[in-house]
Amino acid sequence: MLTPIDLGGTYMFADSGTVIPVSEARDKLTELIATTKQGRFPVIGRYREPGAVLVAPDLVRLLPQLLSTMAGETGKFVAESRRREPDQKVYQLGDPWPFVAVALWMNGHRAMFAQFASDTLATIQSRDAANGLPRMTVDEFLEALPMTLGGDLPEEERLAAIGLLREALPTMNSAR
Known about the structure:
It is a single chain. This protein has helices at residues 22-36, 57-84, 97-106, 110-130, 138-149, 155-172, and strands at residues 3-6, 11-14, 20-21, 43-46, 49-53. The protein is mainly alpha-helical. The strands form two sheets. It has a three-stranded mixed sheet with strand order 3-4-5. A two-stranded antiparallel sheet has the order 1-2. β3 (20-21), α1 and β4 form a beta-alpha-beta unit.
């Protein structure tokens, strides 16, 4: 039977309903990896605290496509808001963008975080142009991030994330 394991508000399923200790997982790693091909998600950790989830490589390969799609949908939403109210400043990018961005950042996926932001901005800019509006600038995008990321990132991390984007976004697409 698959039982949910709480990963801090997100749930994965383990066959036994328990977190597999790291010491036990080491001995069973080949077997655990094989179970991912059967649709299982072994949860590994220490002291009953989840630390990692084994996932089949095919699912991991979907991640960039899923992130790109989410960035595109968020960009469309923001651009539509800008079209309806062109004089209104954008203060937030909307859910679930911040949760995904924070998860990428806090788990050390800096390049994916920057690409996620870049894809979102590119969609907004493309839609702005199609709507006959001035394209959102990198600075305008960055101005929306403090409120977008809100309390989901400690201030020091939020400043570091925005700093990374301030450097990366202008070079990720020459049209920006």
